């Protein structure tokens, strides 16, 4: 299994983010789960890549030329795919991955999560989408999704399709046991 990990190019203000990301990377490697990510060596992106690699796992990066040229590319990956732009980056990551997981991050992380989640809702893929909710980081987003459902803009099953986990073991179990919504409806 290869999981695309979306996360911050910064470390965040609380050590729980780096510590939890490091623990996830270690468990992924131990469980034989490969990581697909944005290809950078900075922030949580670098932390997850380093943790997987340090524990014998495989990491596949996808980075736009402009970011590689700013010397942000991780130099020890299993494979590094260099693409023209962010659109190609997301498309290539989606091709490589069997699922999508958002860790703490900024607006880029949210944008990537929302695109993968939307594609799943529309049936463009049937891969798991999830959040690694370290320290309740995504609680406000989940509350907003509930507000959207109560207001009639989001069906309950599309909230339920998001894997929500706050430990590496729960992430792995949920991704391995994921049943796409379209299979639940038939």
UniProtKB/TrEMBL annotation:
Signal peptide: none
Keyword Cell membrane: no
Alphabetical list of InterPro entries matching this protein: LOG, LOG_fam
Gene3D superfamilies: 3.40.50.450
Coiled coil: none
Catalytic activity entry: AMP + H2O = D-ribose 5-phosphate + adenine
Keywords from the UniProt entry: Cytokinin biosynthesis, Hydrolase
NCBIfam families per UniProt: Rossman fold protein, TIGR00730 family
Protein family according to the UniProt entry: Belongs to the LOG family.
Descriptive protein name: Cytokinin riboside 5'-monophosphate phosphoribohydrolase
Protein's organism: Marinobacter koreensis
């Amino acid at each position: 299994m290869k999981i695309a990990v979306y996360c911050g190019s910064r470390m965040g203000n609380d050590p729980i983010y780096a510590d939890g990301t490091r623990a996830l990377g270690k468990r992924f490697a131990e469980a034989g789960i490969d990581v697909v990510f944005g290809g950078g060596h900075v922030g949580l992106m670098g932390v997850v890549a380093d943790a997987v690699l340090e524990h014998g796992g495989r990491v596949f990066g996808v980075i736009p030329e402009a970011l590689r040229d700013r010397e942000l590319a991780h130099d020890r990956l299993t494979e590094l795919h260099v693409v023209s732009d962010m659109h190609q980056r997301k498309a290539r990551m989606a091709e490589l991955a069997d699922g999508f997981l958002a860790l703490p991050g900024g607006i880029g992380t949210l944008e990537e999560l929302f695109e993968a989640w939307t594609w799943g809702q529309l049936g463009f893929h049937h891969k798991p989408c999830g959040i690694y909710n370290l320290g309740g980081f995504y609680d406000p987003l989940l509350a907003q999704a509930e507000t959207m459902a109560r207001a009639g803009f989001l069906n309950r099953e599309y909230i339920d399709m998001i894997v929500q986990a706050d430990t590496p073991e729960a992430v792995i179990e949920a991704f391995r046991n994921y049943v796409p919504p379209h299979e639940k409806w038939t």
